[in-house]
User: Fold this.
Amino acid sequence: MWWKRRAVAAPPSQALSTHGILQHAEPDSWRDHRFGLSKPRWDRLKGRAFWVTGAGTGYGRAIALALAAAGAQAFITGRRIAKLEETKAEGRALGIDVELCHPVVADITSEAELAGAIESIARHTGQLSGLINSAALPQPDAGGYPLSELSSERWTELIQTNVTAQWLTAKAALPLLTSGDETRVLFLTSEAGWADTPGFGPYNISKSAVNTLGVSLAAECKARFPEKDIQINVLVPGEARTEMNQGSEISPYSVVSMVLALLSHPAGGPTGHFFHRDGRHLTFGYSPSYIGDILVR
Assistant:
């Protein structure tokens, strides 16, 4: 993976952290550890509906299956139905009720396909409790100086998937997300969003933009829906074995504990904040570290 090949500027270490996050919980033992959640927090997810993009592989697949394990409805989106079926097959092997996983094939860069996806989800439920934006493209191969040499077509493709599509997905989901009193949204970013690594400028920029998108949406929703419990945050998933990084030995389930901790948080939790999968509370721009322990209640 390119993070291994070049030194990067990782998010700064913070004194504030959530303890009890399980990065190395074996997914086939989910009944025993519940990915670090207490029984009451685990039960908060049961019966709720979540939309997970990029759910055919990697982090998205792991998150969707963990939600289904907790008894939540998981609407799983990707461009390839075969990959979404592989997600369900993996869930069966783990003893998870994959009837709770509903494939919704869509290219999230297409507003028309997103509209179709929302129509499909709405036929199953009138309310979404959460959205997890996990889909992304890797850094295009453009030599060592992509900001000087990358074609405009490749630039557009990267930004369209990693930034514009994240906005379009959240925008399309917002009516279902705000139809109830409680909403949880997560944008999966990258340490690249804090980096200036030579040779990876376009990807760095795309993830920095996702960071700003997440906190800006959080602020807008707080102003627009002051009466609702809306928690929108940004999470660094770290390195793991995904389609972008076939060589890693770290399981993509490493992100699940922190994800579920945020998605199951009761009212009054963080919004407009940044977290790392290992429990660290991060800063970005004008957004300070969250003060509090995500797993306390």
The radius of gyration is 18 Å.
